[in-house]
Amino acid sequence: MTTRVLYMEDRQGQEPDPCYVREFDATVVEQGPDFVVLDQTAFYAEGGGQPYDTGALSWSGGEAKVLRVTKEKGVIRHHLDRLPPVGPVHGIIDWDRRYAHMRYHTSQHLLSGLVWRIYAARTVGNQLYADRARVDFQPASFMPEDLTRIEAECNRAIEAAHEVRIFQEDRVVVDSKIGDRSLLDLIPASIRRLRVIQVGTADYCPCGGTHLKNTSRTYCAARHGGWGCC
Ligand SMILES: [Zn+2]
Asked: Distance, CA 206 to ligand 1 centroid (Å)?
């Protein structure tokens, strides 16, 4: 049985927003040597350049640290320092770490979408952490003035406070809209409906990640003058 992923639920104005679920109730359905599988989870499993979430699981009479979260064929494993019995548990995500990942990931959508639109350079890789992130473009031969322009375009999109929309769309429609922006070939052909992220006019791309609600939240200049620190 595949794990129900709570942050993947459709964004329909519900509170909390699916990507902002920090705590949830679930049931342990399988135990491994150092992990459990739950019927549903809000923990992000490592993938797509975004690290796994950490946090805790608690149950009647005990608590465990969630050390690592992995995914295989739709089944999400929570690797723990001790195992709960089969039955109900309560999950709590380390929100500082996850929220930093959401800010970098949403920023990456902005950057990737703008660089695609301006330079027709495709994003071929990315890796983010809680304190920094990297994006790989192909072809990439940016001059200093190009980098200045990219930074200015990104800052304009942040100041415009674009809504980040998440919705389902037919694969043929997505294919016709994005051209070579994203490697649709990597998604199994059997999947006909895709989860699409639209960041104002800056980006439109299929994605299974965790996202902010608005681009204005990517930047915290007012408080600390930096990226992703609060
Ligand atoms: Zn995304």
From this structure: 7
